[in-house]
Amino acid sequence: MMAKTSPGEFVRQxxxxxxxxxxxxxxxxxxxxxxxxxxxxxxxxxxLGVDQVLGRLVKLLLGIGA
Length: 66
What we know:
This protein is mostly helical. The protein has helices spanning 7-19, 26-62.
């Protein structure tokens, strides 16, 4: 069982760990955001296509397709 840590010691440890964090720069955040938006768009279009194909296939198999 671990020893209990006092609130003061806990806050000190949190501050030490927070000081070790390396925050991304503005250009890195911008680049990552653009990449996420591009990938989200590509995947949305891909899954729309897959959904359309599977929907038509199901309608064809059920005999309700045109």
